[in-house]
Amino acid sequence: MMIEWSDSYSVHNAHIDTQHKKLFDLAKQAYIMLNHQVTPDEIRTILAEFCNYIKEHFNDEEQYMEKIGYPDIVNHKKIHNELTKSLVMLIKNVKNVNDMKEKLHIIAKKWLLEHILKEDMKIERFRRSMLTGQNPEITEGEIELATEVYYYGCACSGKLHDVPLDIHRRIEKGEKFRCKTCKQDIKCVKVQKIL
């Protein structure tokens, strides 16, 4: 299950929103690769596209934060630097195609998309507060994010479902979710800590 772009993720800057949509598209491509046969070159192409696009996006986003006077810009830049360094380290330490696919998935979904959903939404709350004259609160936890990736299996051979935290919790409480392909209940087979 992949997080889809929604207008609720908008920071109300057309250029930044367009870049975020592109990152969602790249993340979707990475997710598709996770469950399909792909060559190392196909994965390297997506990784290179991520690397190049991230640098451009982070630079543009930092300029936008400066323009609107975002008060937490120093911390946000630090997060950008950490994400960039982590991406480089992940790429350097790739062992095989499956390892490469898994790392691409972590980069795409858990770092970039959750960065947009968590950190970039703080920028939007600040921008909104400036328009309404309210005191902006830049706080953690409005959108709860997992520190783990939850993989569920079904009757499909070799298929894994990447389940978001809210669905994982609902399954833990007894709710049933089925694979759209085989129509069987999915069951947790692997929990992976995020780096």
From TrEMBL:
All copies of domain Hemerythrin-like, residue ranges: 14-123
Pfam families: Hemerythrin
GO MF assignments: metal ion binding; oxygen carrier activity
InterPro entries noted in UniProt: Haemerythrin_Fe_BS, Hemerythrin, Hemerythrin-like, Hemerythrin-like_sf, Hemerythrin_metal-bd
NCBIfam families per record: bact_hemeryth (NF033749), hemeryth_dom (TIGR02481)
Family the entry assigns: Belongs to the hemerythrin family.
Protein name, per record: Hemerythrin family non-heme iron protein
Organism: Helicobacter winghamensis
